[in-house]
Amino acid sequence: MAKTKKLEMELPKEGRFISSEFPILRENLQKIDQAIADCDEKSDRKASLQHRHTMSDVEGLETTLKSKMAANKTFLLADLKDVEGCKDAAENYVLYKASNDHFTFGSSKSLLGTHEHKIEDIRGLEAYGCLTKKNRWQEANDFQGPVTVDGKAIYTKDEAIVALQEIRDEIAQMIKAIMPLEVLMTESGSLPWPNGVTDDTDIEIWAWGAGGGGGLGIRSNGHNYGGGGGGGGQCVRTKIKGFQRRQLTIVEIGCGGIGGVSSNKGGGAGGSTRIEGIMTALGGSGGGSGAGGNGGVESSNESGKSGYGGSASSSGTHGISYIVSGGGGGNGGSGSGGSSIYSGGGGGGASANNGPGGWYGESDKGGKGGRGYKGNSGGGGGGGGYFPGEDGVANKGGNGGNGAVLLKFFCKEFSMNYAIVENGVVTNIIVALENYIHPFEGKAIATEEVGIGWTYEKGVFIPPVQMSESVDPTKEDSLS
After folding, report:
1. Neighbours of 220 (CB within 10 A)
2. Which of 51, 180, 352, 356 stands the most exposed, by the fewest C-beta atoms within 10 Å?
């Protein structure tokens, strides 16, 4: 059955009797009449098209409109929240869009990034650089240097590297020339004089006497007595001029004292090291057995004295330490040897009654002492000379360390072509107030810092193992 969309009224149907349609039509007309009545009622409550109100009649309208932005309103960039850096951007910075739809300021150069320009696109370049013709510095567009800036020459990197290497090489040669040449003698014989030593050469001589041997302890009447440590050898130093070398001929190197080898036997005294006519470094006394060994006497130049040997004991005391003299040996019963800065260190006493054994004495310039035996009635440590003393063992005291002679030759003059000079003092050569490279010839006084060290044994010069370059001390250029 078909109906209208709005009021859902039943529509006439073909083939149906008219008498059947009348009731349906009557019902539909009533629906239409009611709909028209409803429309009239609603329209009666509406204002007409010509209806008007003043703004004051509408509550709050004026206040609301006044809070709204004017149509011609303008803003500064600094007033916008999504523009970063506008308040503190540098002059000539540009505004660009960043991420998240924000805007920010940045340098125009940074925005360009890495890029290239054609020569023809750069206005005035040819006139500025004279690229298409010769200019006042060029011949066939090759610079005829050196170029100067504010009156100072400018060199290429390669030229500077070569020049600096030449300077380094000459400074290295200069340092070798002003540092002392050292010769160490460990065996008796004639004094070695390398070629290049003149009458004006400064020579410094160090001599060390040998250390005394450690004594051997004894067990007596149910008590253990440890052997005393040997005394350290004396150190003597003197300075002479080159012309005095003619007075010096023979060097006698002291040998370390022999440690006690039989029960209750004291150690032997260390041998003295002598250079005839100039100096003697006394050897250290031997360590005691039943009684302490006698100490050496002071040498003539008062550089120090040899160390005293420690006595055998069941409760040892430590040996005396000195600055210049040799360290005293420790008494038996685990007394430690005395130390020394320049001379040999004293040997430690052997233990008694199963003690720990005396510790050796230290030395900065000479040899350290030997350690005392750890056990009952053993041997004391040998005293140090230039070389360390031996440790004591169960049935023997340690031998003392041998002496030695150290010769230092100082050459004062040198010459060089260039020197690097920086603010202040450079390698004790020149004092300057600015940095520069300058031709230079002159003299410098050598410092007492150790430079090149050599050992002299059996008439032969032995170079130091750690040196990277071989320098022959018998050649004149090694000392000039």
Report:
1. 14
2. 51
Q: Give SS3 for 183.
A: strand
Is the Cβ–Cβ distance between 214 and 329 less than 8 Å? Answer: yes
- Report the DSSP pairing between strands 181-185 and 452-457: parallel
pTM as predicted: 0.49
pLDDT category of residue 320 using cuts at 50, 70 and 90: low
Burial (CB < 10 A; 0-12, 13-18, 19+), residue 262, is exposed
Spatial distance between the Cα atoms of 54 and 271, rounded to a whole number of angstroms? 134
Beta-carbon contacts of residue 135 (< 8 Å; ≥ 6 apart)? 129
Q: What is the mean pLDDT of residues 318-330?
A: 60
Measuring CA to CA, which residue among 402, 82, 44 is closest to residue 211?
A: 402
Which among 347, 338, 323, 308 is positioned nearest to 235, based on CA atoms? 323
CB 462 within 8 A of CB 194: no
Cα–Cα dist 384/368, whole Å: 5
For the chain, the average pLDDT equals 71
At 38, is the secondary structure helix, strand, or coil?
helix
Q: Residue written as tokens 């039989």? A: 262
Q: Is the dihedral of CA 82, 84, 90, 93 positive or negative?
A: negative
Tokens of 461: 């010069």
